[in-house]
Write a structure and sequence with these properties.
Length: 232
């Protein structure tokens, strides 16, 4: 999986440079270097840029096709999750991601990258959850989706309602939507679980392989993230 040679890496970097240019825009969450460097980081999950410690508290702003919402993160709630989310946002990973799982009266989930080359590079880069769940899954809170064996990748979910039944399952809340929850509520829910399902459903392979082109063909009404940035 991933990049097998320098030549292949160069091709991937060229393909991703346009998208990564958006990921390196100015602001507190800018990706390192210029657009080519940012693209190279996206296809290199082992890069040091993915391992920075997050601030004790920070804000992440998401500009979407429905409007803007802001997430306030508290590292003390779930340090591992806060660090991982911080690096994913600041390196532009979530830019142009689709909200692939919107279940009315339950959750909104996103975090599958829209570029198949990036998904391929990240395919096996799961990490075991070390956070202890300290906060309840109440409306507006955010946590990482997990595999059946409690590992994290890049997908997160936002609770649309109080989902206290998730608390005993170990989902570690690391932040909460502080502004724009009406935008989150308005994300298109018409496909339900059909547009990929959850991590534990094992139905996301075609989305990873086909990326945004496939998603937009099969589920054209899904809303998208224009870009996400660390703003504090």
């Amino acid at each position: 999986m991933g990049i097998g040679s320098f030549g292949a890496a160069a091709i991937l970097v060229a393909m991703l440079a346009g998208c990564a240019a958006r990921g390196s825009a100015s602001g507190g969450g800018s990706a390192p270097g210029g657009s080519t460097a940012a693209a190279a980081v996206l296809v290199d999950p082992s890069h040091a840029s993915w391992r920075d410690r997050s601030p004790d508290t920070y804000r992440a702003r998401f500009e979407t096709s429905r409007g803007t919402f802001t997430i306030d993160v508290v590292r003390a709630w779930a340090p591992q999750s806060a660090d991982r989310f911080y690096n994913l946002v600041r390196n532009g990973f979530y830019d142009e991601c689709r909200f692939t799982r919107v279940l009315a009266g339950y959750i909104v989930q996103f975090g599958l990258h829209g570029g198949p080359a990036v998904s391929d590079a990240w395919r096996d880069h799961w990490v075991a959850l070390t956070d202890t769940a300290r906060q309840s899954n109440v409306r507006g809170t955010i946590g990482f989706a997990m595999s059946p064996d409690n590992r994290l990748h890049s997908q997160v979910y936002i609770n649309l309602v109080d989902n206290l039944q998730l608390d005993p399952q170990g989902f570690a809340i690391f932040g909460r939507v502080s502004d724009g929850m009406d935008v989150v509520d308005a994300l298109y829910p018409g496909y339900g679980a059909a547009s990929g399902g959850g991590i534990r459903g094992g139905q996301q392979g075609p989305l990873e392989r086909g990326g945004n082109a496939y998603i937009d063909l099969e589920w054209p009404l899904l809303d998208r993230i224009v870009r996400a940035r660390i703003i504090q």
